[in-house]
């Protein structure tokens, strides 16, 4: 085998694997990404029931309600619109009323958001970036809040 | 006064780094051997200065000196001593100081152990190390000074984030940084080789131990982080494809590829240009990892509050090193002499496929991690790329690699016979087949792919053992001969066997826990019983408890298996004092078949406790597999050929390619 053939073999294998990887990545990106919406955007964009997305906002005060079988119900608000969330799972330790939250799941036909994931936070002062941006756009929350430790 | 000494040592280290960056490079260009020697002494000097600086910061934490802003913001006098010390790197400023300290440690190690390196190469390597150090020390001195004082001394500190107060997480950052920063040595060797225009077998032998050491640290660090997430976050997951995890996983993948391609350079003097590129990429991804973790640009479930302005500074450092290295690569790499030829079906060919698949896997992870950022910048849409994407793309790319792992070592260099190699693996194939059939026959419920996954794990394990048996002629020669051969095997061979075996063990754990995990969520009153995967869990009751810096509610659970009491587990809800931040401590009991995992929730509707119990089959094998990989790396590192055989380079004088 000559040097030239060796190089071509290397390049062809490389291109095949690269092509495979690119195809995989593109398919997966089309099918598996989820969008992030605030309750207002859910109304604006008329999100259909059954579509997976991330819902973010603040946990409304006095909205956490315990249901049977260790399930929990709470309301997510962006201070304009609200959405009721049902969640079957362990809530992160730092989940509490009045704080930012990001959940993932889908809308039920009844209009309730059924979440299967509530993102855990590791830090009291941490505000998910999407939530911070969305709230800033609404003028509810300012950068200073985060740094006021 | 002590604090100011630490700050002063830091500034001196910055000056030494500048000297280490400029002078040896100039001396190497001039060919002035005497002047080149300052590289080693300044590397050692810098390390000592940073040791002093780090010791001072640690002292401030140990004595709870709240006049230092950093200590006040991250410590508390009631904290146990181990967390006072780990608090030093449990925050941004301190962790950056640890980063440069480890960088200086590696530079000093190159200076001390690299006595057999050609002076020019050594000077250039240390000069590149010095430039990295200079960049990050400037960053610390200018925007993240850990020694900043407060005008008024507060009586008490604010405490360390309670979730970080954990033994595994105390040593997780030093290990991970050891990996990230250790890859800088491979990077510096690559840059020095590009400047010199020379890469050969000796170069590969010098680079490989450093890469191996970094890879071991990275393996241990990632594994430790995963284990921590498993028992600390309270829902039993072990890997989340979170940006912060991906940040450490990408350099690991590329470092793994680099370890394999460096073998080809060493043994066959081939794949040189590619190996240099991998060395550059591995450290570049480490820098990107540091940037992702420290900038807070990506939403992560592991995110900590961060300051975006500092991100820009790291981004600039990143652009300089990655851009500069790739530009130098584009300019100089074509001038490197091509090496030995090989047929596509050969050990080299197999290692090329290994490299391509690992790199493609890393690229898929990279795109998935950064795509949300790019999309938001372009369209303004906020999206997230989650586990389904990563499982699909990475899974498909890595599966063929895992299938091929046992085959690779069976192939001969240059040109190989696949049929002969496959025949030698018949026993491993048979074992894998039986392993696949067991869950099918036992009619274990779960995804249809799961039995194949178990078969794959056993294929890897058996493949490694068969390879070892072949080498020592087990059952083909008298036992004494086999033992003698085993003793005579080079460390590298045993290391490889163990590392591949570890991957197989890990695959078993990953497949089992993904496919057959059992989860039960239920509200329990004292005396209530719940059954999980054949074990009966009785909720005994709860009682208050007070720790050094927290108060807790402890729930007690009685575990019985087949009417026989097995253990009493406790799970706690802790409230930490300074911040009132709650955490959960789970109760875990490890059976041979898997972990019983109990996590206590909040109070249930109508009294009692919400309790979640999981059975995670074979989950421990995931971390056990990484331990085996780590040990394999260690044995390979101790291979005496790296210490004795390595130094001899062909006697020709290195002439820079003009």
Count the E strands of chain B. 10
Largest interface: chains, residues each: A-B, 54 and 63 residues
Q: Which bin fits the share of residues in helices of chain A? A: 25-40%
Largest sheet of chain B: 5 strands, antiparallel
| Oligomer classification | heterodimer
Instruction: Please write the string of helix (H) and strand (E) elements of chain A.
Output: HEHEEEEEEHH
- Cα end-to-end separation of chain A: 67 Å
Q: What does the radius of gyration of chain B come to?
A: 27 Å
Share of residues in strands of chain B: 5-15%
Contiguous low-pLDDT stretches of chain A (5 residues minimum) are 143-149
What best-fitting shape of chain A do the alpha-carbon axes yield?
elongated
Count of individual beta strands of chain A: 7
The helical percent of chain B reads: 55-70%
Number of alpha- plus pi-helical segments of chain A = 4
- Largest sheet descriptor of chain A: 5 strands, mixed, barrel
**Strand adjacency order, main sheet of chain A:** 2-4-5-7-6
Topology:
The complex is a heterodimer of chains A (149) and B (658).
Chain A: H1 3-32, E1 34-37, H2 39-44, E2 52-59, E3 65-66, E4 71-77, E5 82-88, E6 100-107, E7 113-118, H3 129-137, H4 143-147
Parallel strand pairs in A: 1-2, 5-7
Antiparallel strand pairs in A: 2-4, 2-6, 3-4, 4-5, 6-7
Chain B: H1 2-30, H2 33-36, H3 38-62, H4 69-74, H5 81-86, H6 92-113, H7 119-143, H8 167-196, H9 201-232, H10 243-268, H11 272-295, H12 308-332, H13 347-379, E1 383-384, H14 387-404, H15 418-424, H16 426-441, H17 449-471, H18 479-488, H19 491-516, E2 518-524, E3 529-532, E4 535-546, E5 550-561, E6 564-576, E7 582-585, E8 587-590, E9 594-603, E10 609-617, H20 620-637
Helix pairs in contact in B: 1-3, 1-7, 3-6, 3-7, 6-7, 6-8, 7-8, 7-12, 8-9, 8-10, 8-11, 9-10, 9-20, 10-11, 10-13, 11-12, 13-14, 16-17, 17-19, 19-20
Architecture overview:
The complex is a heterodimer of chains A (149) and B (658). Chain A is built from four helices and seven strands; from the N terminus they run H-E-H-E-E-E-E-E-E-H-H. With 149 residues, chain A is of the alpha+beta class. Chain A has two domains: 1-33, no CATH class; 35-144, Nucleic acid-binding proteins (OB fold (Dihydrolipoamide Acetyltransferase, E2P)). Chain A has a five-stranded mixed beta barrel with strand order 2-4-5-7-6. The longest helix of chain A has 30 residues, at 3-32. The termini of chain A are far apart. Mean pLDDT of chain A is 79; it is low at 143-149. With 658 residues, chain B is of the alpha+beta class. Among the domains of chain B are: 1-165, Four Helix Bundle (Hemerythrin (Met), subunit A), CATH 1.20.120; 425-488, no CATH class; 518-617, no CATH class. Chain B has 20 helices and ten strands. Chain B has helices at residues 2-30, 33-36, 38-62, 69-74, 81-86, 92-113, 119-143, 167-196, 201-232, 243-268, 272-295, 308-332, 347-379, 387-404, 418-424, 426-441, 449-471, 479-488, 491-516, 620-637, and strands at 383-384, 518-524, 529-532, 535-546, 550-561, 564-576, 582-585, 587-590, 594-603, 609-617. In chain B, the strands form two sheets. A five-stranded antiparallel sheet of chain B has the order 3-4-5-6-7, with no helix packed on it. In chain B, strand 3 (529-532) and strand 4 form a beta hairpin. Chain B is globular. The two termini of chain B are 53 Å apart. At the A-B interface, helix 1, strand 1 and helix 3 of A face helix 13, strand 1, helix 14, strand 2 and strand 7 of B. Strand 1 of chain A pairs antiparallel with strand 1 of chain B, so a sheet runs across the interface.
């Amino acid at each position: 085998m000559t040097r030239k053939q060796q190089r071509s073999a290397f390049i062809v294998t490389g291109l095949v694997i690269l092509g495979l990887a690119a195809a995989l990545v593109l398919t997966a990106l089309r099918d598996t990404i989820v969008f992030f919406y605030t309750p207002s955007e859910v109304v604006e964009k008329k999100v259909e029931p059954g579509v997976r997305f991330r819902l973010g906002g603040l946990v409304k005060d006095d909205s956490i309600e315990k249901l049977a079988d260790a399930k929990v119900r709470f309301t997510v608000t962006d201070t304009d619109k609200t959405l009721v969330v049902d969640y079957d799972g362990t809530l992160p330790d730092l989940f509490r009323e009045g704080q930012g939250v990001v959940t993932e799941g889908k809308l039920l036909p009844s209009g309730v958001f059924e979440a299967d994931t509530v993102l855990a936070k590791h830090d009291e002062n941490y505000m998910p970036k999407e939530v911070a941006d969305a709230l800033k756009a609404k003028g509810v929350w300012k950068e200073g809040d985060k740094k006021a430790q | 006064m002590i604090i100011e000494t630490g700050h002063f040592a830091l500034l001196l280290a910055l000056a030494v780094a500048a000297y280490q960056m400029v002078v040896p490079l100039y001396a190497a260009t001039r060919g002035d051997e005497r002047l080149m020697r300052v590289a080693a002494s300044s590397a050692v000097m810098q390390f000592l200065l940073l040791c002093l600086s780090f010791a001072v910061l640690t002292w401030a934490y140990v004595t709870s000196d709240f006049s230092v802003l950093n200590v006040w913001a991250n410590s508390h006098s009631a904290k146990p001593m181990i967390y006072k010390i780990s608090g030093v790197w449990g925050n941004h400023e301190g962790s950056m100081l640890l980063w440069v300290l480890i960088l200086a440690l590696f530079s000093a190690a190159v200076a001390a152990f690299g006595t057999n390196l050609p002076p020019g190469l050594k000077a250039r390597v240390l000069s590149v190390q010095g430039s990295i150090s200079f960049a990050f020390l400037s960053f610390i001195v200018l925007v993240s000074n850990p020694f900043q004082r407060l005008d008024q001394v507060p009586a008490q500190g604010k405490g360390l984030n309670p979730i970080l107060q954990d033994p595994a997480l105390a040593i997780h950052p030093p290990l991970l940084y050891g990996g990230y920063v250790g890859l800088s040595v491979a990077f510096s060797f690559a840059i020095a080789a590009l400047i010199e225009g020379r890469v050969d077998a000796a170069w590969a032998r010098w680079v490989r131990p450093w890469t191996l050491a970094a890879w071991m640290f990275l393996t241990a660090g990632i594994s430790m982080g995963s284990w921590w997430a498993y028992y600390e976050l309270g829902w039993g997951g072990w890997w989340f494809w979170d940006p912060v995890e991906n940040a450490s996983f990408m350099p690991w993948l590329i470092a793994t590829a680099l370890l394999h391609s460096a073998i080809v350079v060493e043994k066959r003097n081939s794949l040189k240009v590619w190996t240099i590129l991998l060395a550059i990429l591995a450290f570049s991804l480490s820098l990107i990892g540091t940037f992702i973790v420290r900038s807070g640009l990506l939403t992560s479930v592991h995110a900590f509050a961060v300051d975006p302005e500092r991100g820009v500074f790291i981004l600039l450092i990143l652009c300089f090193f990655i851009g500069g290295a790739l530009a130098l690569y584009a300019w100089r790499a074509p001038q490197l002499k091509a090496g030995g030829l090989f047929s596509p079906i050969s050990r080299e060919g197999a290692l090329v496929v290994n490299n391509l698949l690992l790199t493609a896997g890393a690229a898929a992870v990279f795109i998935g991690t950064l795509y949300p950022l790019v999309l938001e910048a372009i369209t303004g849409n906020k999206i997230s790329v989650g586990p389904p994407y990563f499982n699909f793309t990475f899974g498909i790319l890595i599966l063929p690699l895992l299938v091929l792992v046992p085959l690779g070592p069976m192939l001969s260099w240059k040109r190989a016979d696949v049929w002969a190699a496959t025949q030698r693996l018949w026993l491993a194939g048979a074992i894998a087949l039986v392993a696949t059939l067991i869950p099918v026959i036992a009619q274990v419920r779960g995804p249809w792919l799961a039995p194949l996954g178990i078969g794959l794990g056993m294929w890897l394990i058996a493949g490694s053992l068969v390879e070892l048996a072949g080498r020592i002629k087990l059952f083909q020669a008298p036992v004494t001969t086999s033992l003698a051969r085993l003793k005579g095997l080079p460390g590298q061979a045993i290391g490889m066997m163990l590392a591949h075996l570890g991957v197989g063990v890990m695959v078993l754990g990953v497949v089992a826990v993904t496919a057959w995990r059992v989860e039960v969520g239920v509200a329990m009153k004292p005396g209530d019983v719940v059954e999980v995967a054949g074990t009966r869990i009785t909720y005994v009751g709860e009682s208050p408890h007070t720790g050094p810096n927290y108060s807790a509610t402890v729930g007690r659970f009685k575990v019985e298996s087949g009417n026989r009491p097995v253990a009493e587990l406790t799970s706690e809800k802790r409230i930490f004092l300074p911040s009132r931040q709650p955490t959960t401590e789970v109760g875990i009991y490890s059976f041979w078949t898997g972990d019983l995992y109990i996590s206590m929730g909040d109070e249930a509707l109508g009294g009692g406790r919400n309790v979640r119990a999981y059975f995670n089959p074979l989950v421990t094998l995931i971390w056990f597999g990484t331990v085996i990989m780590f040990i394999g790396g260690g044995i390979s590192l101790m291979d005496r050929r790296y210490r004795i055989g390595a130094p001899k380079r062909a006697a020709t004088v290195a002439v820079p390619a003009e």
